[in-house]
Amino acid sequence: MLEPSLDLYGETFDRVDGLLRELLAKSRARYAMIIDRKGFVLVHQRALWAPKPPSLDSFATLIASNYSANRAIAQLFGEEGFKETVQQGAEVGTYLEELGEAALLVTVFDSGAQLGRVKMATKLAAAEIKAVIEAAEDPPPVVEFDKEWSDSTTALLDGLFGTRER
Amino acid sequence: MSTINFAIREINFKIVYYGPGLSGKTTNLKQIYDQVPAESKGEMVSLATEDERTLFFDFLPLDLGKVNGFKTRFHLYTVPGQVFYNSSRKLILRGVDGVVFVADSSPDRLRANAESLRNLRENLQEYNLRLAEVPTVIQVNKRDLPDALPMEMLTQVLNPEDRFQVFEAVAAEFKGVFEPLRAVSTMVLEKLAQKA
After folding, report:
1. Which of A83, B23, B46, B182 is 20 to 30 A removed from A98 (C-alpha atoms)?
2. In whole angstroms, what is the distance from residue B107 CA to residue B121 CA?
3. What per-residue confidence (pLDDT) applies to A35?
4. What are phi and psi of B189, to 5 degrees?
């Protein structure tokens, strides 16, 4: 049995996607995304006016790692974790909310957005997203990852290094 | 555990390069980065100290392409090898799908290799994983050293029960870099295929 870190597909995915768009509109943030705690992007949205984001893979990996490191720091002091994770630069900042044990909701904002508004909108969105995920009833789609799939994927790996003919 | 994103039809795997300090983990990732075409790789991220020792991790995403409509991606990580960065090593092992253990052939690093492998076992236990359950291969690096330890000695220490595939390497010259990655990736893919 495959175990996705967070089941997001079908109607649930569409509703969560819509909530991210609402979050951007309410907060005036640039980007909003859900990543799992291993650092993989699950769903993301970008405001129409926002510049192209940096590499999402790198961003998500660094956010998840930073979250894990901060949590470990909090635990050194007997805390479960820190209640808020905010980072603010001269122009750009990030705000993070937990989505249960599996995922994180991250909002990226710039000086055109107020931090208080970003926090409030992100907290509300996190609560709504959690409710949508908890209410989801559809079972995960069945996908066949068989030997043929495994062999085909290994062939792609060989192709990547130019060794397919070896 | 692999991450499967059904909505965008994407499957992601996490491979971690583990081993003692200065064994060549970051060199592996740099060599892979140099060899892979631009369209199949993302940015390489290195969180290092001023003297270029890994502080937290190195990260390199690889994009293999689509099979059966699913985009397949591998995220490669290194851990910091220095003993005192164990907290970071534990964090990076979260969600690991496969491990390349990079051993050092230097004569004075035999004990460091053994301790690092023991440390890997201990840190996996934090996630209720046993090393035997995680696809793992051993890359014995720096085989070009004039005083490199004999392979027999290294395998006796690191792989006495012949559980792991072992690869000789000179990572700085891209020798033996691809083979362990291919081997561990194949094991990871086959494990998922068996589970499905």
Report:
1. B46
2. 23
3. 94
4. -65, -45
pLDDT tens-digit series, residues B97-117: 999 999 999 999 999 999 999
Chain B contact set for A163 (CB, 8 A): 178, 182
Look up residue B49 and give its amino acid.
T
Cβ separation A4–B72 shorter than 8 A: no
pTM tops 0.80: yes
Most B CBs within 10 A among A61, A101, A142, A144, hence the mutation to make, goes to A61
Residue of A nearest to B56 (CA): A65
Neighbours of A148 (CB within 10 A): 12
Instruction: Pull the structure tokens for residue A160.
Output: 């990547």
- Which tokens sit at A159? 């192709």
- As for the ipTM of the complex, it is 0.82
DSSP characters for chain B? Answer: --EEETTTTEEEEEEEEE-STTSSHHHHHHHHHHHS-GGGB---EEEE-TTS-EEEEEEEEEEEEEETTEEEEEEEEE---SGGGHHHHHHHTTT--EEEEEEE--GGGHHHHHHHHHHHHHHHHTTT--GGGS-EEEEEE-TT-TTPPPHHHHHHHH-TT--SEEEE-BGGGTBTSHHHHHHHHHHHHHHHHHH-
Work out whether strand B10-18 and strand B70-78 pair parallel, antiparallel, or are unpaired.
parallel
Buried b (16+ CB within 10 A) or exposed e, A95-105: bbbbbeebbbb
